[in-house]
Amino acid sequence: MDGDNRLYKLAITPTGRRLWTYMAAILEVTEMDHGKVFPLKRFLVNFQTHLDCGRVESAPEGYRLTRIGQDYFQARYQAGNTQRIERGAVEQMIRSIRSGVGEDEWVELT
Fold first, then answer.
1. Model-level pTM?
2. What's the CA gap between 33 and 67, in Å, rounded?
């Protein structure tokens, strides 16, 4: 993360494609997509399915993506994926996570 460590989360967790986009942005901002550990529950309360499927695992001081998880979330950028996300939408979500400004209500991460 950059010098300003303040991050923001959506006040209400989205659903569907917006949730998939939000998750991708969270993984990038926290650098979990590159193997870093982060207390993911600060952003999302429920990601049990990802734990159960072996995509996310518990680690000291938080959670990390497994190799399976890295591949799974990266595949969402590929054409033909039923959970496909757009790079531009993820970048916009990243800006909102870092600034607290954007669609919907954003609250500072605690």
1. 0.92
2. 10
